[in-house]
Write a structure and sequence with these properties.
By secondary structure, this protein is of the alpha/beta class. It has 3 domains: 95 residues, Alpha-helical ferredoxin (Fumarate Reductase Iron-sulfur Protein, Chain B, domain 2), CATH 1.10.1060; 159 residues, FAD/NAD(P)-binding domain, CATH 3.50.50; 140 residues, 3-Layer(bba) Sandwich (FAD/NAD(P)-binding domain), CATH 3.50.50. Helices cover 33% and strands 17% of the residues. The chain contains 16 helices and 16 strands. It has a 5-stranded parallel β-sheet, sandwiched between helices. Strands 5-13-6-7-8 form a 5-stranded parallel β-sheet. Helix 5 packs antiparallel against helix 7, helix 8 packs parallel to helix 16 and helix 12 packs across helix 13. The N terminus and C terminus are likely disordered. Bound molecules: flavin-adenine dinucleotide and iron/sulfur cluster. Iron/sulfur cluster (SF4) binds next to helix 2 and helix 3.
């Protein structure tokens, strides 16, 4: 029996359509004015609100909801965006079930307030109308270079511009926005949302330069020569190699998601697809393949309990008709005449805990079998930031080592986002908060004259 005939596999005959009726459009529809008013008026406006405590960017949730209730949408959006410049993205991609909505007091006996959807309602109201809520601060005469335009870079650049610093943001890709633009599937965040946030940054006077890559220490030295401080928001790298025979036939999960987001019309339809991995990238790749009409099976070498994908996304994938098989390790991509025909796997059993504290999966001797398929997508995570070593940065567990203010081991260089996320889950909202922390640290250091005061010579030792 192949796992495509797995006993728990649902009917794979027809992919689910989104509620809007389109295969690729945003899954949740926007709230109507009536829905938003009714939902806002359900909120108890709790004192010391647990929802606010649960938000990593500390958005004043009761206040923004109250403003929606009184029809002050501009004020509501201001409350949100003051705390989180990427409020439009976070409203869509945050794991609200585990954060604000999970903490809502109404969740215990009733339904929690739909905080994410209310946030989206308020932010969309101003951003769809191109309302510019913030102004650049009074010029300080200092300048900061930000490298990487994902959530961490955009958040830091916005806060620094609001504080009056001249900010240049360098991005190696053609479009800015990081994984919000290229990674998170359009069902959750259409590309226009990320681009609106980039535009808001440009409107704040930030010099956004795309197609500009930081390639090594010499580039960093130039940035340090030309600017008073540098913030590195490089994210993580590509999907790592699996080291199995036939590797060259594997499709990179991030490339697949990007293609599905930017050019869904180019996806090959109705292929039997195996996705390797069990994190958010795997779920997203599987979802996009399924939406393209494929039969999709996700294989993971551990069990359901050890999956790193958000629980609600796993459940969503099941609902979409994606099948899963656990304790299964791919060992070879099988091909014939250059075409993938299958994935050879071995069954696994859980052994003693490994360094991560999770039970170590071990191959069951003689359990090899082949899954028939037409394409195999590898989505086993992202590589750690390899550029960091070239830049001469101290690392910790492969990630850029930073202190509590997100200062790196190099003078006048800060870092944040996924590239420093040794602990805790990598998420958009955590990257946004990193941007705020780094911006506050840089601003304090520039204001205190600890860095800046004219451009520094390359290699000036850190004094803060
Ligand atoms: C498929 C997928 C789905 C996800 N879904 C969710 C979700 O639903 N909810 C959630 O909260 N999080 C999700 N995440 C995680 C979230 O996207 C990241 O945590 C977040 O984007 C990290 O932000 P960042 O700014 O650190 O990095 P990134 O968003 O990766 O941005 C880094 C930027 O730096 C640029 N860059 C890198 N090196 C250089 C260089 N040398 N020179 C110039 N530019 C450079 C890159 O091109 C990129 O634009 C998902 C991630 C993936 C991969
Ligand atoms: S916990 Fe729930 S009810 Fe209380 S303020 Fe937050 S959203 Fe409103």
């Amino acid at each position: 029996m192949t796992a495509f005939e797995h006993p728990s596999a649902p009917d794979l005959s027809a992919p689910t359509q989104s509620s809007s009726g389109s295969t690729w459009q945003e899954l949740l529809p926007p709230m109507s004015a009536h829905e938003a008013a009714v939902e806002a008026n359900r909120c108890l406006y709790c004192y010391d609100a647990p929802c606010l405590q649960a938000c990593p960017t500390h958005i004043d949730i009761p206040t923004f909801i109250r403003k929606i209730g009184t029809g002050n949408l501009r004020g509501s959006a201001r409350t949100i965006l003051e705390a989180n410049f990427l409020g439009g993205t976070c409203a869509r991609v945050c794991p609200v079930q585990e954060l604000c909505e999970g903490a809502c007091v109404l969740g215990k006996d009733h339904t929690p307030i739909q905080i994410g959807r209310l946030q989206r309602y308020a932010v969309d109201h101003v951003q769809e109308r191109g309302v510019q809520l913030f102004q650049p601060g009074t010029p300080t005469g200092k300048s900061v270079a930000v490298v990487g335009s994902g959530p961490a870079g955009i958040s830091a650049a916005a806060e620094l511009a609001k504080a009056g610093h001249a900010v240049t943001l360098l991005e190696k890709r053609e479009q800015a926005g990081g994984l919000s633009t290229y990674g998170i599937v359009s069902l959750r965040e259409p590309i226009e949302i990320a681009q609106r946030e980039v535009q808001a940054l440009i409107d704040l006077g930030v010099d956004v330069q795309t197609g500009r890559e930081l390639t090594g220490k010499a580039d960093l030295d130039i940035l340090l020569h030309d600017h008073d401080a540098v913030f590195l928001a490089l994210g993580l790298g590509a999907v790592p190699a699996m080291g199995v025979p036939g590797e060259e036939h594997l499709i990179d999960g991030l490339d697949f998601i990007e293609q599905a987001k930017l050019h869904p019309e180019t996806l090959l339809y109705s292929l039997k697809t195996v996705v390797i991995g069990a994190g958010n990238t795997a779920i997203d790749a599987a979802t996009m393949a399924r939406r393209a009409g494929a039969e999709v099976l996700v294989v993971y070498r551990r069990t359901e309990a050890e999956m790193t994908a958000y629980r609600h996304e796993y459940e969503f994938a099941l609902h979409e008709g994606i099948a899963f098989t656990f304790l299964t390790q791919p060992v070879e991509v099988v091909s014939h005449g250059g075409k993938v025909t299958g994935l050879k796997c071995v069954k696994m059993a859980l052994g003693a805990p490994d360094a991560s504290g999770r039970p170590r999966p071990q191959p069951v001797p003689g359990s090899e079998f082949i899954l028939d398929c037409d394409q195999v997508i590898s989505a086993i995570g992202q590589e750690k930031p390899d550029l960091a070593k070239l830049l001469g940065l101290e690392l910790e567990g492969g990630y850029i080592k930073v202190n509590h203010d997100l200062q790196t081991s190099l003078p006048r260089v800060w870092a944040g986002g996924d590239g420093v996320r040794l602990r805790g889950s990598a998420s958009t909202v955590m990257a946004v908060q990193d941007g705020k922390i780094a911006a506050a640290g840089i601003h304090a250091a520039l204001g205190a004259g600890e860095v800046g005061g004219g451009k520094w010579e390359v290699g000036t030792p850190q004094t803060s």
